[in-house]
Amino acid sequence: MLPLALAGLAVALVWVAPRVLARRTSLRRSPRAALAAWQAASLGGVLAAVSVTPAALPAVLGREGVADHPGLVALALLVSAAVIARLLVSGHLVGTRIRSARAEHRALVDVLGARDDHGVVVLEHPTPTAYCIPGRGSRVVLTRGVLDALPDDQLAAVLAHERAHLRARHDLLLEFFTVLDRSVPPMLRSPAALAEVRLLVEALADRAAVRRSGAVATARAMVAIAEGRAPELGMSAGTSAPVRLRLIAAGPHSALSVVAYALAVLAVATPVGLLGLAWL
Ligand SMILES: [Zn+2]
Predict the structure, then answer these.
(1) Per-residue pLDDT tens over the stretch 23-70
(2) Residue 162 CB burial class (10 angstroms; 0-12, 13-18, ≥19)
(3) Are the C-beta atoms of residues 236 and 13 closer than 8 Å to each other?
(4) pTM > 0.85
(5) Which residues have CB less than 5 Å away from ligand 1 (the ion)?
(6) How many Å lie between the centroid of ligand 1 and the Cα of residue 170?
(7) Three-state DSSP class for 141?
(8) Measured on CA atoms in the order 123, 155, 249, 175, is the torsion positive or negative?
């Protein structure tokens, strides 16, 4: 029963949870807690999937029989190891590609722009754009257009937004979900999941901007640079602008945070508990 429960849980967390979470748009008002729930659901799904075969052993052989069949135990662990190896290889490939593209981009903006002591690079371009290049030697990239168009408080909001991305390593969070997305079979993938996580990361950085400059200045800054095209992580809101503006106006919702954190704990604790039960 327990291996079946774990398999069911894996499907629920990998396939059902992203579809349910992506539809719960009210969670966007607690982006930090919502991101915790997203991460926990993904992690719990992987844990449940790799636990199915180890949990099946005592059920198939009887608890005493496990010691008599070292070959089967090794095979079961090998199946789990294969799932983990697939994840690691996928992670390595995604990470290498992202880091090399980023290093190229950083070298390019360093040649084209003027960098100050705080890691801010200004590009002489009229389009108002702001974004950041995360990782080692991170940069905040601003165009002359954004410096000319925005008053001080809005510019401070933009910088607070970009620095929040860099400080909290939102790039790693997005990388984590990209890796998970690549490593599940295409039919199980949920394109809405990655889009929702991206939106939540932006909403979280918007919070930092609101704390710095207030909701009005943040919203104005977003509108001013909404046309700019920013790679990866940027203040540029693009198609999510109306949603993010509404979230800035609505403010945080602490009761929803509690629910999201509780779900997060449950998503990770359940597979661990079920595997423990199988071996008790
Ligand atoms: Zn951003």
Answers:
(1) 888 889 999 999 999 999 999 998 998 998 888 888 777 777 777 888
(2) buried
(3) no
(4) yes
(5) 202, 205, 233
(6) 9
(7) strand
(8) positive
